[in-house]
């Protein structure tokens, strides 16, 4: 269990999947003296720690496999519930996700399917529950941003697990928004599709077997046509959306409008 105790009137950001891609770009852009940042990822990032120290930002990194969501949620609940911890605001960004082997569902092993759904849907819901329960009495603004995908709203062959996880994220966010709206200081929540981004996931999609992934050509065209955002550009857009005064007015949104 992490031991460092942050007691400062900073805005707390909790970010999953911060070790690479857009998650790492968001982490870097959140490094500021007025922020406390907790990153939950499969591995630490020494460069990020050095950047945080230089920026005067309080940073803690947890190495955690989010397929073990109950363990991660329990750790988060305990960490947030430490006596004397205070923050000016608190935000959870559920960014971590994964895709299993790109193939029809009939060719996906139960183990790969379970892993994808645990990381992509179960973990965000479990962490959100822990975050909300632990901060229920905090009289400060609280937000939850779930990083979704257009594939949660549009079906695609050989992507059943990823599409299902993102669709579940969208609909669970709608339910959560209804619940929090009933509370005096309910959290503002949104499931946001961030557009198409030049990440390792895109490399996986472009490299898939065309015989089992009929949409491969589309992803190749996105890359060759220069239609992919860099992780850094996508992170700037997502964080600007998160900071907007009307965040949460729509529980499901797309960065492209």
What would you note in describing this structure?
This protein has helices at residues 21-29, 46-55, 69-80, 110-134, 160-181, 200-206, 216-224, 231-243, and strands spanning 11-16, 35-41, 58-63, 89-94, 142-147, 188-193, 252-254. The protein has one domain (11-195, 231-252): NAD(P)-binding Rossmann-like Domain (Rossmann fold), CATH 3.40.50.720. α1 packs across α8. A seven-stranded parallel beta sheet has the order 3-2-1-4-5-6-7, with helices on both faces. The chain is 42% helix and 16% strand. The radius of gyration is 18 Å and the shape is globular.
What's the architecture in CATH terms? 3-Layer(aba) Sandwich
Euclidean distance between termini CA atoms: 40 Å
Q: Report the biggest beta sheet as strand number plus sense, adding barrel if it closes.
A: 7 strands, parallel
**CATH level-1 class:** Alpha Beta
- Helix count equals 8
The number of distinct structural domains comes to 1
Topology, number of strands? 7
* CATH fold descriptor: Rossmann fold
Taking all Cα atoms into account, the compactness measure Rg is: 18 Å
Strand percentage:
15-25%
The backbone outline, from C-alpha atoms, is globular
